[in-house]
């Protein structure tokens, strides 16, 4: 019997449809997280345009990005949308097809509007749910790094999605929460009893409160008790720590400046040495290793404070789009 399988017209159409769905989905995920435009799969789009000989895929992308309801409500920055639409128009022009009115109308709309300091980045969860956070356009502003989501926060959130048991029915304290991505994902996916977001910077705290209020409504996690606290690692009191009584402590990208390492380690040592807690908390810290010297200094300080650590090497499923070139290391600290 001849076992050669000839691809039927229907199967071929299915392959084409799936490829198109995949391309439009990647464009949507990258657009809402405001990924660099050169990380978009433009070559796949070009191929799709050439093979289908229609502009349909461009219209689908437009529908899933600039014209999508999420974009109307929580838009990426104007500059970003302008550059995105300009690139989309360029790709479409290469097809030598009739100009698409919808593309030019969308560009016209963003050309007239006025840029703001704040934009929205939206991260899509595996359930399809969106987490839209108000973030600053600049990586550092108002003297803080806390107004944007950093890669280690996205990594820690991906790890949390795969390890809900670490958080389920626990009181979780997050140090240096920034705009709140990790905690919001944990609260939406892992059913902690209580989640305490914390930071020291007043503008960051205000932004954090807004994001937490918008992203953690009763619809998302009605059983989690959520609060946002001002907590400076240098000033946090025994009374505050006693009241929080955390089972699990997490932090992302808090080891970036040699000046703050010593007060962070002192706080961690206090958390381990408290008599009021029958058992030690579980402490997980995810860090982007930008400067190996700074990171080594953190580990040396941990050792000096009598704290040991294990490197967590779990592979995580990639959920969020971010630059995975830099090394991100997660450690679990123990006494
Ligand atoms: C690089 S950002 C990381 C924010 C967030 N965890 C993320 O990864 O997206 C560092 C955060 O640590 C906070 N931070 C720095 N020093 C602190 C201190 N002494 N006490 C409390 N928070 C601090 C900053 O305000 C900032 O929000």
UniProtKB/TrEMBL annotation:
Gene3D superfamilies: Vaccinia Virus protein VP39. One of its GO terms (cellular component) is protein-containing complex. InterPro entries: FAM86_N, Methyltransf_16, SAM-dependent_MTases_sf. Keywords: Methyltransferase, S-adenosyl-L-methionine, Transferase. One of its GO terms (biological process) is methylation. One of its GO terms (molecular function) is methyltransferase activity. Signal peptide: none annotated. Residues 22-110 form the FAM86 N-terminal domain. Pfam families: FAM86 (PF14904), Methyltransf_16 (PF10294). Belongs to the class I-like SAM-binding methyltransferase superfamily. EEF2KMT family. PANTHER family: HEPATOCELLULAR CARCINOMA-ASSOCIATED ANTIGEN (PTHR14614), PROTEIN-LYSINE N-METHYLTRANSFERASE EEF2KMT (PTHR14614:SF130). This is Protein FAM86A. It comes from Triplophysa rosa (Cave loach). The lineage of its organism: Eukaryota, Metazoa, Chordata, Craniata, Vertebrata.
């Amino acid at each position: 019997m001849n076992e050669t399988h000839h691809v039927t017209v229907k199967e071929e159409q299915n392959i084409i449809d799936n490829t198109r769905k995949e391309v439009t989905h990647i464009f949507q995920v990258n657009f809402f997280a405001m990924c660099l435009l050169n990380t978009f799969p433009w070559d796949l789009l070009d191929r799709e345009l050439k093979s289908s000989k229609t502009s349909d895929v461009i219209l689908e992308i437009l529908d899933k990005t600039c014209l999508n309801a999420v974009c109307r409500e929580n838009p990426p920055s104007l500059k970003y949308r302008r550059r995105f639409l300009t690139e989309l128009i360029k790709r479409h022009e290469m097809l030598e097809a009739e100009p698409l009115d919808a593309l030019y109308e969308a560009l016209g709309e963003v050309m007239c509007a006025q840029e703001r300091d704040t934009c929205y980045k939206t991260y899509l969860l595996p359930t399809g749910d969106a987490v839209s956070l108000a973030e600053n356009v600049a990586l550092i502003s108002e003297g803080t790094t806390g107004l944007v989501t950093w890669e280690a926060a996205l990594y820690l959130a991906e790890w949390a999605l795969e390890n809900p048991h670490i958080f389920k029915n626990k009181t979780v304290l997050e140090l240096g929460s920034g705009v709140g991505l990790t905690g919001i994902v944990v609260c939406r996916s892992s059913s902690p009893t209580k989640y305490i977001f914390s930071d020291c910077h007043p503008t960051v705290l205000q932004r954090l409160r807004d994001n937490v209020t918008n992203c953690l409504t009763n619809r998302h996690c009605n059983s989690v008790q959520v609060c946002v606290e001002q907590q400076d690692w240098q000033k946090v009191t025994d009374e505050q720590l006693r009241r929080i009584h955390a089972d699990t402590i997490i932090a992302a990208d808090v080891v970036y400046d040699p000046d703050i390492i010593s007060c962070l380690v002192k706080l961690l040592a206090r958390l381990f040495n408290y008599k009021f807690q029958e058992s030690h908390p579980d402490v997980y810290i995810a860090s982007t290793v930008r400067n190996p010297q700074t990171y080594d200094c953190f580990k040396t300080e941990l050792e000096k404070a009598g704290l040991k650590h294990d490197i967590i090497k779990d592979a995580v499923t990639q959920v969020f789009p971010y630059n995975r070139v830099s090394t991100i290391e997660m450690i679990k600290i123990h006494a």
